[in-house]
Amino acid sequence: MEKLNVKALAVALGATWGFFVLCLGWVAGFGWGTRAVEVMSSVYIGYAPCFV
């Protein structure tokens, strides 16, 4: 069994999280998941549902 590559795991999780947050912002532009965006905006200042 091989060892876990911690740097590769960190990059993969970071990219996945970034893609999730991007998609959540886009979907919230249509009115879905607005509560989740409100919670995320308390952590990420300036985060809002938009396409830009």
Keywords summarizing the entry:
single chain, 63% helix, 52 residues, mainly alpha, elongated
Task: Please characterize this protein's 3D structure.
It is a single chain. The protein has 52 residues and is an all-alpha fold. It has one domain (6-43). 63% of the residues lie in helices and 0% in strands. It has two helices and no strands. The longest helix is centred in the first third of the chain and has 23 residues, at 6-28. It is elongated and about 45 Å long. The termini are far apart.
H-E order? HH
Tally of individual helices: 2
| Total number of strands | 0
Give the overall shape.
elongated
Q: Which value, in Å, is the CA radius of gyration?
A: 14 Å
- The residue ranges in which pLDDT falls below 50 over 5 or more consecutive positions are none
Write a brief caption for the model.
With 52 residues, the protein is an all-alpha fold. It is built from 2 helices and no strands.
Question: How are the SSEs placed, and which strands pair?
Answer:
Layout: H1 6-28, H2 34-43
